[in-house]
């Protein structure tokens, strides 16, 4: 539209409309955009989830998660050294247990020399300064894929809590720095705290999966840990309904009262409103898990040429910071760390 047409339509000038407040002024150059950037992602915000497998010399690709592998324990030192070299503060481990070692109660989690504990010792021996985060949920150890002890179609809360508290002590003894219970059993955080303290592990922290939702975004993860084809029923009796936000706050408040040092929201991007509410309400260290389905969607869209995968990766991670996260568990951690160094 030329000036004559604008005058004929009686449109005010841009300065009149905006009161001379032109918000594009600080977007005009790279230096000015950097100067006013409100949230900044750094390598210090990244936690790298790594999948484990039995055997030696094994690096198994996960079909639903391009670029992600299961590693046998002997290959973990190399991955830990890679993480440390990139400046990634911590690794979270998730095992794919041999079917022969799985049973109804997930009893192999109580083996001091199980896959999780051997992995922790190997990582700590190779790179003592890197943080190791372990999960005490039973799903990788059960033959039914549930996070707790299953009997007559019911997940037994109290028996499960007793077992995972015992497992937490074994994981701490192996060198875990943070116990991150993802099972969503009532009372688990308090029981784990009591067990750790009684065993002399007062220094071991708890990162509670305070708000873990009954989500459709976990599929590739279940392939990675070998539970996808095992699951009987669903997990709606212990994970949170995706429609609920107040319940998520009640869960968080309960876990903090029981002794959680930090809390996590899982999944991530679909639940940024939960992250924001938790951070605003409790002002505690708050994390999110960019889960396998989120990773797979970005990778699949990028592979088809529909999006710029690397830009989408960085944008999604920045969104977690904007929502209030202090850190993010993400399978993109090494790739993002490389990008942040460049």
Automatic annotation (TrEMBL):
Mg(2+) binds at residue 251. GO terms for biological process: heme biosynthetic process. Keywords: Heme biosynthesis, Lyase, Magnesium, Metal-binding, Porphyrin biosynthesis. Pathway: Porphyrin-containing compound metabolism; protoporphyrin-IX biosynthesis; coproporphyrinogen-III from 5-aminolevulinate: step 1/4. It catalyses: 2 5-aminolevulinate = porphobilinogen + 2 H2O + H(+). SMART domains: ALAD. The keyword Repeat does not apply. SUPFAM superfamilies: Aldolase. One of its GO terms (molecular function) is porphobilinogen synthase activity. Pfam families: ALAD. Its EC number is 4.2.1.24. Gene3D superfamilies: Aldolase class I (3.20.20.70). Homooctamer. This is Delta-aminolevulinic acid dehydratase. It comes from Chelativorans petroleitrophicus. The lineage of its organism: Bacteria, Pseudomonadati, Pseudomonadota, Alphaproteobacteria, Hyphomicrobiales.
